[in-house]
Amino acid sequence: MPALSDDARAKVNLTLRVIGRRVDGYHDLESVVAFCDCADRLTLAPGTGLTLITTGPRAQDCGEASDNLVLKAARLLGERVGDLQAGAFTLDKALPVAAGIGGGSADAAAALRLLARSNELALDDPRLIEVAQLTGADVPVCLSSQACVMTGVGETLLPLSLPKMPCVLVNPCVPVATRDVFAALGLRHGQLLVGATDVIFYQPKWPEAGAPIEAWIKALAGIGNDLEKPATRIQPVIGEILAALGQASGARLARMSGSGATCFAIFDRDGDAQRAAQAIRLEHPQWWVHAGVLS
Questions:
Q1: Whose CA is closest to 8, among 68, 70, 66?
Q2: Whole-model pTM?
């Protein structure tokens, strides 16, 4: 079988509410998730064995290959699918790591999609879904890589129809560990962050299919990212990024994605996003900056 390839698109949390911390230690979330047109590229040469080679501009940031989520996902799937044919993976790493845009999760999801193709498995195969959930909280949403409302610990997904939204993503190339941000949030086991009444009665209404960007910006503006403040305490540069994005001409909404440190801004027009990205690159050449489209 010839080599297969797939894009591992960056995940962006347009909103992120932390409902509370469960008694088992996991956090219940509610998040509107979109995907950007920037991505890692994963290739699989089907064959015997299981290997991973990492290349690309961010390869040195990936750490030990044995700890990579691509291999974790493949091994977990192999435990559930008899005679699974794996092979040699090559990861062209372009996205920053520990950045709040699901880079490692997107890579793992791409690995599962490639293994599904090479082994003739459906993407809704229960074994594939189970492995996605076991590999990481963001892997299920990255498996489909479609805009949705994600709830629970990432296992419940409600598809959304988003318009294409011009955007700029900025990361300071400083990793932020998700566990440190949740620790800084400081919730005890079994503690709610929002009131019980809010949990029961708060049901945000999202724009219907075909709604313009304006309607989405208005809807998104009312719900922020509960991890933004604790992440900024850990890495104050997040505040600098948000200020730079918020001051950009044409920026309509700026906030942090996931647990940081990547932040994004949404624009009405592609040209405004491109000009903003260029200005930020000139002012902060050490930052990773991408102008593209969310959908």
A1: 70
A2: 0.95
Looking at the structure, do residues 142 and 214 belong to the same domain, yes or no? Answer: no
Q: Which has the closest alpha carbon to 227: 9, 26, 31?
A: 31
Provide the residue range defining the domain that includes 230.
165-294
Q: Using alpha carbons, select from 84, 91, 4, 88 the residue that is nearest to residue 40.
A: 91
- CB hemisphere CA count around 110 (13 angstroms): 27
Residues 59, 25 share a domain: yes
Per residue in 85-101, pLDDT (tens digit) is 999 999 999 999 999 99
Positions marked catalytic: 11, 138
CB 3 within 8 A of CB 87: no
Domain shared by 173 and 267, yes or no: yes
**112 to 108, 147, 231: CA distances (angstroms):** 6, 19, 30
Residue-wise pLDDT tens digits, 155-191: 999 999 999 999 999 999 999 999 999 999 999 998 9
**Across the strands, what pairs with 35?**
11
Residues 38 and 71 in one domain: yes
Which CATH number fits the domain that encloses residue 60?
3.30.230.10
Residue found under tokens 């090559």: 90
